Amino acid sequence: MNQGAPLIEVRALTLAAAGRTLVQALDWRASVGERWCVIGRNAAGKSTLLRALAGIGEAVLQRGGHVLWHGRVSTDWPAADAASVRAFLPQQPSDRFPIAVLRLLDLCTVRPRHDARALLAALDAAPLAARNVLELSGGERQRVALAQCAVQGAPLLLLDEPVAFQDPAHQLQVAQWLATLEDH
Q1: Angle subtended at Cα 48 by Cα 144 and Cα 157, rounded to the nearest 5 degrees
Q2: CA angle (103, 160, 57) in 5-degree steps
């Protein structure tokens, strides 16, 4: 890992799906302490771009260019090492197994940097700790997913609609929580 390199860098990234170019020759980088937002209309390719930045492949995509984390091409990172570098929050987390929230967070810890219970409390999700993830509302599950990303301890967080399914009070709380996250 190159400590002087940006957290993430994109070189000539091109993404296409269903015969439509979504991103053409994108060059971009983000360093520690920076926060970026991808804005666009529905179906413009924002989620596809975030998945590409996270190194999550899609069969329907045609790709060109490179995504680098800490100066190293994302495809060169073994899965466990990639998890220590970047965390990804999809628009809508999906669960396949009944598992308690706190146990799920324990399984997501790559490098213990954050206390799972404290993260849940900060996101107004502490009462959910013993609940089964399959029984959570959309907003509850999204806040738990944010805690999952944070407890993972990765310096790069790629969040796709982090306030999705939240009521206005929780949208504000999540936005404030994101603004106060420490830089890694």
Answers
A1: 40
A2: 85
Q: Is the pTM of this model over 0.85?
A: yes
Whether 77 contacts 69, CB under 8 Å:
yes
- Dist CA 55 CA 87 (whole Å): 10
Report the Cα–Cα distance between both ends of the chain, in Å, rounded.
Answer: 14
Q: Which region holds residue 63: left if phi is over 0, alpha if psi is between -120 and 50, else beta?
A: beta
CA dihedral 70, 76, 82, 87 (to 10 degrees): 70
* Pairing status of strand 86-89 against strand 156-159: parallel
Structure confidence by residue, pLDDT tens digits, 3-20 = 678 999 999 999 988 888
CA dist 9 → 18, 23, 68, 179 (Å): 26, 15, 5, 22
3-class secondary-structure state, position 27: strand
pLDDT band at 184 (very low <50, low <70, confident <90, very high): very low
Per-residue pLDDT of 109-122, as tens digits, reads 866 667 899 999 99
Q: Where does the chain show beta strands of DSSP type E?
A: 8-17, 20-30, 61-69, 72-73, 86-89, 156-159
β strands within 58-134, DSSP E: 61-69, 72-73, 86-89
Q: How many CB atoms lie within 10 A of CB 127?
A: 11
